[in-house]
Design goal:
Strand content: 15-25%
Number of helices: 11
Largest sheet: 7 strands, parallel
Shape: globular
Distance between the termini: 40 Å
Radius of gyration: 19 Å
Amino acid sequence: MRVLVTGAAGFIGAALSERLLERGDEVLGIDDLNAYYDVKLKQARLARLRDHAGFRFSCVGIENADAMQQRFSVFGPQRVVNLAAQAGVRHSIENPRSYVDSNLVGFANLLECCRYHEVEHLVYASSSSVYGSNRRLPYSVRDPVDHPVSLYAATKKANELMAHVYSHLFALPTSGLRFFTVYGPWGRPDMALFVFTRRILAGDPIDVFNHGRHTRDFTYVDDIVEGVIRVLDHIAEPDAAFDPLHPTPATSNAPYRLYNIGNNRPVQLSSYIETIERCLGCTAMQRMQPMQPGDVPDTAADVAELAQDTGYAPSTPIEIGVRRFVDWYRDYYRE
């Protein structure tokens, strides 16, 4: 297939693009290579993709409507995966405008492009952060998510609503994926595993928020990519059992789906740090901190719908995933 992947120089986008290319798809990667984190790391991910004959790349932001229409016209994608977004819960508190531009304006541009170019299926990244103040665990896509606690979460919830409108009005098949704390080689430098590894190796203390008591559904990147591809190949259809008198947020009488994509095995942060220490052979100096604004104490993914529809079954234990990251980090940074 011809697949357009936005955020192709990002952590998940690069890994997904590589898997699509390996199975024989043509990929047009879109990314604006912004300076939210180390651009050299993004370029290094892209360098691996450029070895594939089926890969093309365009440096452009999805908030540029004219440029996006031009890329769609030339490439003619059959399916689209939107992984481009301004990420990070904490960053959204200080830099709200960047989230509006990329996550709202940019996503609207993509919906319009998919509509007018008759894309077969749009798969887009949502986030576990949409569950906000919800406390019933594990999180289910059938639960309402009306109480976000960060602007980032609010933009992701908005994406889900916007996608439903296009599925309803224009019969555009859309599937939203609520990612749960993705980690692994080539990861983002602002994520906990990257920060902890860098600081522990440097002999610097690490800040442990919520005193290490909160839990996260850490999900290895290969498991995430496997799930994304399974959803991409499983085009959303109207739910024949959808009851408008008792609606569920997860499906619709339009070709629309929402899925959690996580490991379904939450790990306490303190245990996660112990795993990192074992893999590094170093002990961390820990500075206990209260929970940060915009964070939630726990996340856990109910992936029943994704497993039922696509056969998704994450298989990477946390010890193996962290070990693979540490090995990559030491090789990449020559530590």
